[in-house]
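Hi L., both proteins are below.
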Amino acid sequence: MLGFPTQKQYLIAPLCLIVIMLLLEVTKPLSMQWLGFIPTDIEKGEVWRIITGQVLHTNFNHVLLNMAGIVLIWALHGEYYDTKHYTLAVLSSLLLVGIGLLLFAEYRSYAGLSGILHSLIVYGGVIDIKRHDKTGWLLLIGVLAKVLYEMIIGPTKYTEELIQAGVAVEAHLIGCIVGLIMGFTYLYVYRTNKH
């Protein structure tokens, strides 16, 4: 934990995600129009929006916050993710969180990567625990306490002002659940391959 893996295989995928986020930000409003997470459009068959809409953001501050989250996850668990593993984890999170948002949240539109960031933090925490790193438990407890706080008390007004939108706390909760599912799947696959 807190290693800084600077080898190419650990940097390419997070950097690509950041570049995609920046490109989508500078091509707004066109990117939002064609790729935004709008449930009514998804129900009409534009299913790509389940994934693409979560990589869009409300403003540049929102992009910067989520870029910081990507860097934090790289700092915490970067050595767990080569390019293929990171890409698979992010795409799985995008799909599962997106479906969760469609089924369990009532947004007219949604933007942001925070659900995915929560899933990756929880997923990394599960891997920490499997590797007997006690900080994995602290990480899981901390993230779950944060989400519980947001669900009961609500998000900070400062964050809402910064991103010029309401904080999607349901996405954070769904992201944590997806992270646990991915973590337990990882443990199952690891155990199966070991035998």
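That was the first. Here is the second:
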Amino acid sequence: MPMFDIPKEIDEKKDINDFMRKIQEETKPEKCILCGKEQTSFCNSHSVPKMVLKNIAKAGKLYHANKLIEIPVIDKEKGISNSGTFHFICRDCDSKLFQEYENVDALQEIPTEKMLAEIALKDILLMLSKRNQEKRIYQKGKQKGILQNVEVMEEIQQLDNKDYMDELNLYKDVLYKNSCNNFKIIMWKKIPCVVPIATQTLVALPKDTEGIEINNIYDMRPEVRMQNIHTGVFPMNDYSIVYAFYHRRDRLYRRLHHQMNCMSLEKKLELINYWIFKYTENYYISPEIQIVIDKDDKLKELSRENNGMPNLGYVTTMDFLFHKDEIKPSEVTNLLREMYAVKK
């Protein structure tokens, strides 16, 4: 998420929302990135299936990441129809390409190759959409003189886009060619309760559970490709699915795979819960547990980290003087535990 000083002309919430709507409109591609057909309008695609989000909503509303991050001018709560959406593919592709994993019955079983490819493809589409919007924000920020280090941000954005397009084609091939043995499942677990959080995302983890490097996120050489793990939490009507998997070519996750195979279910859930809040913003929380998350200062600190730095990456003198040790998975509320379920 690019960070910059909000100018006075867009310092009110309404103006921020208008600003982002314009960004979305200006960054819609001319053609669907999947089928290549020219489009005048694009599908309101959900990054987390709508059928999942509705199971934890309260009066049709969900908390977004800003409930914990607490940027004053950004909404903390939104309706299901506006939660985690992007406009990047046509309606025809959206309705046809994700049918297998967006299926209540199919999710209860060990996933097929096609299901995993659909999930991975959806994750990549979200990231490409976000990077496309960020590029436009960089341009506007540079024009107004309110965005610093634009060149560095643009270089990172270009490298990410290159990697994401490579993965997009990789997962399209799996879907269109019906190939087998493409993915390694670390975890796919059906939990007998409805957990209060939903997410579907990819993460380039920097290290494994023993602190050994997986991805050097600061290595900007063009030949270095970040390797991603796909993770998600799907609360259903009376159970939840928690998963983590990676493409077999991403061999840097082999050690982590072995480490997690040796863990108890409780420890696996604790770790995935930690990844969600530390490495992504694409999660949605049920308002039913507002009291729980309001009281957890560690969870808020973890959510505000940016590449391991506090305060969204804005490190002050006070941060150095009162440096705190890295927050551990066991120190934050594990919302995947049955005690926090919205329905058991």
